[in-house]
Specification:
It is built from 8 helices and 7 strands.
Length: about 220
């Protein structure tokens, strides 16, 4: 195999892995063994009937958990920039008879959420991908009710700790201190900060943190 074809094959495998690993339905049961969603919901004081958003929902791992937790009187706004992921989520919700999930095809700078409606917004392992993060935070703040909460969960790889924001995001990770400052600049009040939550995919090189901010 020549160098060009080898490079093309490796890139295809990388894109395939990064697009589907731990996000498609076949991986959800394994993900449940290390992703502590109940602690996340407890931190947010999530309750039946809440209006919540899952930004960067992929194919709906967290959205499905949220849907079951808040019940039929609640609503999950599942946002992603890829239509194929949302189509998969719609199919999974239909198969599970979950009628409280509304999928939204968002823009890269706007999640297109209803204003002054939401009790909770969650951005999990997605914030580092957002180039227009300040604009998105402003949209999120506008979508939350007064007293509504935003939770951001991110991993920061050991090899990029202490490095610049751009170096960290290039490694698909981001440190807590950068996001805390950005939340405060947008007008949020930090209500909880957890420096270490769990190891993403049980990999000690991918420790995660959580910030909870209140409007």
């Amino acid at each position: 195999m020549d160098k060009f074809n080898l490079y093309s094959t490796l890139m295809f495998l990388f894109i395939s892995w990064s697009s589907f690993g731990q996000y498609v339905e076949d991986d959800w049961a394994e993900r449940d063994t290390w992703m502590d969603v109940n602690t996340i919901f407890d931190l947010l004081q999530l309750k039946e009937g809440d209006q919540v958003a899952d930004i960067g929902c992929h194919e709906g791992y967290l959205s499905v958990h949220l849907s079951k937790y808040i019940g039929d009187n609640g609503r999950v706004y599942a946002v992603d920039v890829r239509k194929d992921r949302l189509e998969s989520l719609d199919a999974y919700a239909k198969k599970r008879k979950l009628k409280n999930i509304k999928t939204i095809h968002g823009d890269y700078d706007n999640p297109k959420l209803p204003k002054n409606t939401l009790d909770v917004v969650i951005i999990m392992d997605t914030y580092h991908e957002m180039e227009d993060y300040m604009e998105i935070l402003n949209h999120v703040r506008a979508a939350l009710k007064t007293g509504g909460k935003l939770l951001i969960l991110e991993k920061v790889r050991e090899r990029v700790k202490g490095k610049s924001r751009s170096q960290q995001t290039a490694a698909h990770s981001l440190g807590l201190s950068y996001v805390k400052k950005e939340l405060e600049e947008t007008g949020f009040t930090i209500s909880a900060a957890i420096d270490y939550f769990l190891d993403w995919e049980e990999n000690p090189q991918k420790p995660t943190w959580i910030l909870v901010a209140t409007k």
